[in-house]
Amino acid sequence: MSLHSNSNRSRQLKNSVARWGITLGGISVLFTLVLIFMYLLYVIKPIFESAKIEPIATIELTDTTKVLTTGVDELKEIVYQIDEQGIFSFFHLTANDHRKMFAEKVIADERKLVAVSDAEGQSTNRKKILLDNQGEVKVVEAAFHASYIGDDKTISASVIYPLGEDVLPLDEQEQAIKKVAMAMDSERAIFVALTQDNRLIKTTLTAEDDFNDDPEFEASYQEIEFNQVVDNILVSPDLMMAFIQSGDDIFVFDLDDEFQVDLKERFTPFANSSKKITTLSLLSGGSSLLIGDSQGEVSQWFEVTGEHGRHFQLIRTFNVSNNEAISAIYPEQFRKSFFTLTQAGEIGLFYTTSEAELWKGKLENIVPTTLAISPRSDGLVVTDNHSLQLFYVHNEHPEVTWKALWQEVWYEGYPEPAYVWQSTSGSDDFEAKFSLVPIAFGTIKAAFYAMLFAVPIALFAAVYTAYFMTPALRKKVKPTIEMMEALPTVILGFLAGLWLAPLIEQYLPAFFLLLIFLPLATFLTAFAWYKLPKEIKLKLPETLAPILLIPVLIFAGYLAMYLSPIIENHLFGGDVRQFLTNDLGIDFDQRNALVVGIAMGFAVIPTIFSMAEDAIFSVPKHLTSGSLALGATPWQTLIKVVLLTASPGIFSAIMMGLGRAVGETMIVLMATGNTPILDWNIFEGMRTLSANIAVEMPESEVGSSHYRILFLAAFVLFIFTFVFNTLAEFVRQRLREKYSSL
């Protein structure tokens, strides 16, 4: 009695431990999934946050002289301003009293500045073009230098003259200048100016060696044929184009020719509207023209290739104000964002490509007279009549919106809106393109072709193995196929990319012949076996029958390979690939969806086969025996009883294979060209979500938009698999309920 009681207590203890252990394990798995889900959301969340503008410092201006422009260093420690007296003043923000560091006069004492504008270029600190009341021009730049004494850092500032301290010889006839615009690189500076006698001129200053502290240059002059009133002048930072506003018309001139300046295009932005042009600006990179109008809108224009060549076209508009005219547009230097300023002092922040309105409002109830953006685009300096104020701009991910991620976007230089994923480039002017549509499509495409290859083979093999194959042969075949699942996918991807892809390209007709020869050879072999006399079939072991098919299939494959070059020479001019590309217009990549479908299908087959075979083999024998006893044939029993009963397990097998295909990384990484395109063409590659993460995560900057969008891609992949598995479980339960009564 004591032994029996001890045995019961021991058994109950083990049952309790097992029950709690299983429960704890299940809860841990669910908790881990929730943690992964929450961490992905934590990393993704910042890219959808709105921009914020917060005040940092205010400097009261005791001098009432009008400020014409202002600026700040990269670290937002020193701000500067240039007033109409030509005084360049620097203020140190880290000092408690925001003291003035020094002031330097950059024009002659008896003169005043009438205009200060930014010079286009690629330097971090924008150069300033100074135009005085005598019609003479200088170019100045604020320079900042950091020095260290122990652990203490000191930032000093200075004024430099990239083209020399003397006034610049812009007009060969030495006429005064009324309006001027300029762009420069390390070798050339190009000015487009309007002279006192209303001539439009182009002046090119070419450095003898390079522009440095003591520049020496050669000037060349060209006169531009233009008889209209000049209201505004812009020069693109690549020194290729000049934009001239005359009333409601925009004239675009080609500056690339050293001997003459030709009119490239003329267009009227608001030809059929009451709107008037109030201001112009060039977006970062100089490809887009931003036009502010009298009704509070900013429109973006850039060149698009049409039937009659390239021409400027309206791309998108931004509603800044309902009734206030746009007085100024301030583009960021390295991104496609821009600030707007209305006559009432309302400021707006927009991003062109994503068409995002990031921020609108007034700053500290002031009406800015000047505005400048910090080199890193994280600060804003504004002045009014009494103060100079610095604001912090939190706007790290302006290019990311749901529309930019999932809808067509019209990028600069593209003929039409498109879905594009291109995160990096070798050009500084490059704009990252983060559409998730091509890589999500690539994931579906890869999974589709893999399942198209794997499902028929795996299911037919499972049916034959579980229902028709002898037990002795099944014991060898099933473990052998299941062992295929242990083969590393990196090996499959390596073989697919370096061996299978060139083989398919070389013997492309053979792979289409195999679609005919293999089923035909199987049918003919089965028919021949059926016609064999019973005496011969009885002499052969039952396990040997399916093995006889192997040499027949090998011969069919060899015959397809042998006929491939013959067919290629006689029907396709010796090159099927050229025939597809030139005659049919079908693009062909060596590493394509066909290669991926075969390789990934090979990886998915064991998963589907094993689960489907178990489901079919587990159908109760009394069901099949009863069906056969009632007079049904084996095939009728298979279709009407076995497959219906096993359908929940078969469907689960297919969905498990689909989940494996959707999440596969190494095969699609190595066996495709990793091209993020939208095309079902089986002869072109793709880029999948998982492969994209594997390729680009090591090179992405932590915390950048690129980095966080890759986490968003992982989140999308997570949702894909979650939705597939949920639907699979729902359908499986419905099938189980429907056929459980069999």
Supply database-style keywords.
MetI-like fold, 4-stranded antiparallel sheet, 15 helices, single chain, alpha+beta, 30 strands, elongated, Methylamine Dehydrogenase, Chain H, 27% strand
> In total, how many beta strands?
30
- CATH classification, class level of the domain at 437-739: Mainly Alpha
Q: Give me the CATH fold name of the domain at 437-739.
A: MetI-like fold
Placed side by side, the strands forming the largest sheet appear as 1-28-27-26
Query: Residue-averaged pLDDT, rounded?
Result: 86
Q: Which radius of gyration do the C-alpha atoms yield?
A: 37 Å
Helix content: 25-40%
CATH architecture of the domain at 437-739: Orthogonal Bundle
Quaternary class = single chain
Q: Sheet with the most strands?
A: 4 strands, antiparallel
Kindly estimate the percentage of residues that lie in beta strands according to DSSP.
Answer: 25-35%
Number of helices: 15
Structural class category: alpha+beta
List segments where confidence is low: pLDDT < 50 over at least 5 consecutive residues: none
What is the straight-line distance between the termini?
46 Å
The CATH homologous superfamily of the domain at 437-739 is named MetI-like
Coarse shape = elongated
Chain-wise SSE layout:
Layout: H1 2-44, E1 52-60, E2 67-72, E3 78-83, E4 87-92, E5 100-105, E6 113-118, E7 128-132, E8 137-149, E9 152-160, E10 177-184, E11 188-195, E12 200-207, E13 217-224, E14 232-235, E15 241-246, E16 249-254, E17 262-267, E18 277-282, E19 288-293, E20 297-306, E21 309-319, E22 326-331, E23 337-342, E24 347-351, E25 356-361, E26 370-373, E27 379-383, E28 387-394, H2 402-406, E29 421-422, E30 433-434, H3 437-468, H4 471-483, H5 489-506, H6 508-531, H7 534-539, H8 549-571, H9 576-583, H10 593-617, H11 621-629, H12 634-663, H13 666-671, H14 689-696, H15 705-739
Antiparallel strand pairs: 1-28, 2-3, 3-4, 4-5, 6-7, 7-8, 8-9, 10-11, 11-12, 12-13, 14-15, 15-16, 16-17, 18-19, 19-20, 20-21, 22-23, 23-24, 24-25, 26-27, 27-28, 29-30
